[in-house]
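---------- Forwarded message ----------

FYI, see the G-protein coupled receptors family 3 profile domain-containing protein record below. Original note from H. follows.
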Amino acid sequence: CDHRFYGGGRSKGSYNGNGEGWRRGDYQCLCKPGFYSSRHPFGFNGSVMEVAYQEYWNNESTIYMDKFQCLKCADGCGNCLGPAPCLATYNWVFRITLLSVSVLCALFTISLAFYMYRHRKVKVLVFKVASPIFLTITLLGCSFMYLEMAAIFPILDTCSCIATKWTRHMGFCITYTSLLMKTWRVSLTYRVKSAHKVKLTDKQLLQWMVPILLVMLIYLGTWTLSAPPTAEEITDQYGLKFKQCSYNWWDHSLAIGEVLFLAWGIRVCYNVRHAESMYNEARLISYAIYNIALVNTTMVAFQIYLEFLILLIQVWRVLRHEANAIEGEGCCDTTYTCLIVPLVPLTP
């Protein structure tokens, strides 16, 4: 009862249910995990199978090959009784559309960054005021964040999850650190009331920016080496499985750090709310910081709410199970007492 497919892969297992040792035909064949039989979902009778195999060997019948074969389950199925899918299907039109938009935006920002860097020495007022180096860094950070969608295409696995974390958080750090450095320069200039004007060059700001980026690099590197995120399977309401990147305390710690970083950014933007800057650059940067702070805070609060709700549901299920068990035990004890106690003779 050991059938081998092409390539040596075994697809059936057999057992004797009588406990009397092996005897000819006195066994039942079952498809191994990952295989199924539509004609005999609960196993093959050994005696019938041997007769069919003997007829097949003598070229008398093809019943053995037609009815006693185990077929491979659909992708993602550990056990199955039929060809029904176990994995949720992707909406490829929607995914490809999002991927195309993300890649186009990334290419556009990279092109702008290249243009800004190439013309960084042009003596035009708007270029000099906007700090071409920091504009280039900001655009490169945006392109990193745009590539997050490309990191999870076409399927999700451990490498995709790692790439997703790196593109999202490193892009965030590069983009908003660059913007806040420019706003911080305006804040320092605006707060100083001496006769001498404080002037911070781009090189000095870069010296402040590098340690922040280095901290993010060390954090992401340690995360990747010690506990890399994996693609875990989740079941939807229809019982179909799909993959999602795991979330743990590394994600939560980094989210809290980003919220605190944005809180400092809001404070800097608040300090320069009355500062005059050419082309209202400081005000526009403040709007960008307020926007990302609101979005990040909302998403973190929503994620915490969902996790708390899931925890409550799990606790409720456990308590309901215990309550049902206690209720059943109480009913049994009460019934037993009501039936037995009257039968016990009372002593004088």
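H. also flagged this: Residues 25-84 form one domain.
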